[in-house]
């Protein structure tokens, strides 16, 4: 991973799930806990539940409704909020993230969270992990009506924040989102080497990836 030209960076834009928080919570919830509880609540086998849910997930992936708890609660006829509370003990900050956040704040960088997470999901996580004090703003894509995968999200973000993409760093664990940011003109981009601590490193394609955020602090 190359060192960052911190003198050329004023704004740091950070994703939440898989970037600052361990993605294990979300992967476990959507791939294991939700299908199991859906099967129980609807009186079917787990295999049948997965057969019903998989095409639904695939059809909505990358769209704003994919991240919307209200959408899934209505679609699946259950309370996703309540089900998330059942596994909330798995919500965890990456061990290196707190050190990094404190360092970039102390260095005087503008630090903004931009997440596709629904506001209810964001609130649930902020109740369990103290993230808010590190950030100037906590922005959900639902505030703008477009997911981060969409060019319209980035237009809305610039109109809202008045930031300079050419002097910004953006870190995210999702490749289509990083590509959308690159197309918009964000100059400094990093993927995340291991978003889910239980799954090992992932292929980050054309993007350099951060493995330990403490490695980024050099040169601040």
Automatic annotation (TrEMBL):
Pfam families in the record: Hydrolase (PF00702)
Domain of life the protein comes from: Bacteria
InterPro entries: HAD-like_hydrolase_sf, HAD-SF_hydro_IA
Molecular-function annotations in GO: 5'-nucleotidase activity
EC number(s) given by UniProt: 3.1.3.5
Keywords, alphabetical: Hydrolase, Metal-binding
Top-level class of the enzyme under EC nomenclature: hydrolase
Identification of the protein by name: GMP/IMP nucleotidase
Organism the protein comes from: Pseudomonas ekonensis
Gene this protein is translated from: yrfG
